[in-house]
Amino acid sequence: xxxxxxxxxxxxxxxxxxxxxxxxxxxxxxxxxxxxxxxxxxxxxxxxxxxxxxxxxxxxxxxxxxxxxxxxxxxxxxxxxxxxxxxxxxxxxxxxxxxxxxxxxxxxxxxxxxxxxxxxxxxxxxxxxxxxxxxxxxxxxxxxxxxxxxxxxxxxxxxxxxxxxxxxxxxxxxxxxxxxxxxxxxxxxxxxxxxxxxxxxxxxxxxxxxxxxxxxxxxxxxxxxxxxxxxxxxxxxxxxxxxxxxxxxxxxxxxxxxxxxxxxxxxxxxxxxxxxxxxxxxxxxxxxxxxxxxxxxxxxxxxxxxxxxxxxxxxxxxxxx
Amino acid sequence: xxxxxxxxxxxxxxxxxxxxxxxxxxxxxxxxxxxxxxxxxxxxxxxxxxxxxxxxxxxxxxxxxxxxxxxxxxxxxxxxxxxxxxxxxxxxxxxxxxxxxxxxxxxxxxxxxxxxxxxxxxxxxxxxxxxxxxxxxxxxxxxxxxxxxxxxxxxxxxxxxxxxxxxxxxxxxxxxxxxxxxxxxxxxxxxxxxxxxxxxxxxxxxxxxxxxxxxxxxxxxxxxxxxxxxxxxxxxxxxxxxxxxxxxxxxxxxxxxxxxxxxxxxxxxxxxxxxxxxxxxxxxxxxxxxxxxxxxxxxxxxxxxxxxxxxxxxxxxxxxxx
Lengths: 321, 322
What we know:
Chain A is mainly α. Chain A is 75% helix and 0% strand.
């Protein structure tokens, strides 16, 4: 898998012939001597190889997704053929119809969407306030709290399902809306597990906004909440969008809590745990599974593409500051 | 010049008391507030995190010191404090050591694979034209965005025994990839690498782009070869980012749950593909031994905390202001 990808990269490094040739590639464009022209030719071949390698890598990386969508659109007899073809002449929406109608994925899709939306909105609001506190103020345990948010990201969340299972069960006795088999319980735990990263990432965005803007607003007589809401919030909106992607993913992708908490009421399943039910070791309805997988992937993909630029810069901020 | 700013600084200030007054006003007044505004801002986060993160963490530790099985869970029998008994059972169990070993090997292989693919493609990205770069970025974004669950299902279908494309292409019809321990791990690992190489690729690419062209130009003018430039100039400048990427990968790959659980159907044939995470989960929810599961969770948390300590030190060294 990696060999077509790595070879053009390593070849100028390992082979002594191209080693010298690669040197001018870094800088100037104009050939200085007669020898320079030959090097330009070499460089063009190198560039060509690199381009080809990049395209191959892209095809390999995207292929599973292509296969997923393709298989979701294939009619049953093509899915169940022992010699699958990488295309289809008879695309059909039957698999989607079956998944959404018969298997109830429509409902699970809406459940997932509802949980993720609530988590994204609450997490953005809470993380925004916390990030402001941690970047704009100096107080006693600031560093300690920051380190705690960092450490919280490392905790193996799956191990916490054990105590959380009992916590949610007991909470259900007091407040039925957040007990076992409710969407409320999922919203709460996803919120808790998306916050540390959201705060950590937003911190970078808030820190990037110069103090002077708030200073100016203050001198103009704006109060603290006006400054937060009217000055800072719009400025870090792109960062908030990027952070939201990760909160969305935490909630949308979660498998372990959905599987553990939603045990009595099947109507409250979310997509990942519903997919597992679909997944039988030997007799898989692959067409249906691929259709459901496609339904599950598309929203994340759209979200990613929309905020892609901010996400990368946000990660840079979270990583480098 | 440096001499005047370092050692006689204090004397300097005594000599002309007018200077501090000139620069100082306004700034410090804002930072020292009587009303604990930051606490108000942190309150919502605390309200969520203390009961739903802090308390369960404490409970996890507590459970690991109790005898807590099915009867205790249903409330019939009170939980009994048993000290280190669970840990004694755990450390005396051969399976635990096997699982720990294979978790480390599996996570290590995933980290190496992710970094190799991610770094190679990051370097490749710096050498290609605009369109190939955009296409590769977009494909990587797709792999990144795919939920763990759908990644697992699609790869399972690709490698399916009878209907999978891979067996058909390789002419290995009827071969079950999940039957043997290490091929199964390798397949799960491939999915993990597929999911996580984009983060490494994009982060490292951004890091390489951030190296000023003048530095590379200077190296070139000094007659450094591509390899020397890479080793002596780029690598040291990328070290902070590399450290962070490595440690993040270690933490993620050590915790892989969904792919292992789904693809091996809860730990593989006779538990041959268990990793610590899945092992803890199965002990608790399949075998109803919640306290032993918690003990495994505690061991895992401690291992990850050690890695995190290294991470924080690396962050500090790279100049991150905490």
